[in-house]
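Task: sequence design from structure.
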């Protein structure tokens, strides 16, 4: 009988242990945290950006310095509308081609961020296809860093402008070398390059790998070569303002 009692006592102890574990398990479920509330459906993540230090780095608005200094030029004449490109030298001065502003009645400047600025005056020269345009309102937030020397054969260049008067476009190429002006618009030599441009690219800044302006686009040929007024010519014009004469209005009505 003592053996039977001992067996029964062991069974009772085992049953009690199982019951205790079950009780703990139930108690544990009772203290689980409540389910989270549904996630909001109108949440918009906040995107932050910092200004880069490298040459050509994007600003917080997503544009490079080269793009921010580039402008679209609209020549509103008597019975015609012509478009070209240009780039800012400072708050109120920009560079474009002489043929872009020829016979203009009004000249409108469109900035990279969609502002329209009216030109107050334009001056041009006969030694190159270059014009300097001034404005009363500020043009932009970035300005050209003019190189002190011309690019040489084999240098990689980038052209930023508004081909066909459309969207801001960047294209690259290589300098082929110096050549005579195929259009007879320049005194001395110009530069040929492989950068493919379109009508409306005239007046675009040409940049070297360091982000400096090394010339101004003014023409192309049937072989998709583009032609550049070298920076040495532009620097000479800026140093000798007497070489630039005011452009007359194309009409009086």
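Answer:
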């Amino acid at each position: 009988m003592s053996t039977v009692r001992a067996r029964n006592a062991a069974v009772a102890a085992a049953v009690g242990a199982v019951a205790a574990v079950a009780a703990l398990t139930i108690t544990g479920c009772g203290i689980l945290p409540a389910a989270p509330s549904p996630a909001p459906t109108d949440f918009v993540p906040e995107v932050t950006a910092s200004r880069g230090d490298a040459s050509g780095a994007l600003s917080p608005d997503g544009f490079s310095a080269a793009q921010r200094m580039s402008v679209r030029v609209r020549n509103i004449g008597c019975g015609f509308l012509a478009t070209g490109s240009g780039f800012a030298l400072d708050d109120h001065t920009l560079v474009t081609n002489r043929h872009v502003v020829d016979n203009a009645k009004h000249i409108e400047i469109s900035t990279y961020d969609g502002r329209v600025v009216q030109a107050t005056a334009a001056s041009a020269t006969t030694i190159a296809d270059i014009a300097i345009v001034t404005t009363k309102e500020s043009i932009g937030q970035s300005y050209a860093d003019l190189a002190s020397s011309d690019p040489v054969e084999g240098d990689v260049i980038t052209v930023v402008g508004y081909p066909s008067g459309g969207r801001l476009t960047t294209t690259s190429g290589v300098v082929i070398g110096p050549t005579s002006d195929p259009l007879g618009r320049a005194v001395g030599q110009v530069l040929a390059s492989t950068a493919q441009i379109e009508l409306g690219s005239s007046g675009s800044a040409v940049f070297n790998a360091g982000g400096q302006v090394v010339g101004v686009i003014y023409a192309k040929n049937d072989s998709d070569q583009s032609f550049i007024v070298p920076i040495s010519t532009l620097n000479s014009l800026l140093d000798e303002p007497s070489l630039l004469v005011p452009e007359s209005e194309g009409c009086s009505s």
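The chain has four helices and 13 strands.
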